[in-house]
Design goal:
Length: about 130
């Protein structure tokens, strides 16, 4: 196979990798620039409050990110199970068992993330 033909065939995959790399690289460069500004301000003797750091563009850690990710992965697992059930109802013999095996991966990872999210909640949220 010729090189140009291979590049055309691989271009969708190369594009996905390029988009992810560009987004990740831009995020990293932005974070480095913000940290350089914060470092220079601290070296000059200025006090940096969390509000000031957030105003400069540093993201705040979201406490529910594990719960959100776990919920999304569980929804993906349920949708794969439903797809397998729908295909097996229309004549696919072993499709449901195969799709349930595939759905176990995001489902179990989602359960673990939900467990982490529930265990790592701050104590003040549990009282509310």
């Amino acid at each position: 196979m010729d090189i140009p033909v291979m590049l055309v065939a691989m271009s969708p995959f190369i594009m996905v990798v390029a988009v992810v790399w560009i987004a990740f690289n831009a995020s990293t460069q932005r974070r480095k620039a913000t940290l350089t500004v914060i470092e220079a301000a601290i070296r000059d003797g200025q006090s940096m409050t969390p509000e000031t750091i957030r105003a400069l563009g540093m993201p705040r850690k979201d406490g529910n990110s594990d719960l959100k990710g776990g919920g999304i992965l569980l929804a993906i697992a349920v949708s794969v199970l439903l797809l397998g059930w729908a295909i097996s109802a229309n004549g696919g013999d072993e499709v449901f068992s195969i799709m349930s095996a595939i759905a176990s991966f995001p489902g179990l990872i989602g359960l673990v993330l939900i467990g982490f999210g529930l265990m790592n909640r701050p104590k003040d949220e549990e009282a509310a």
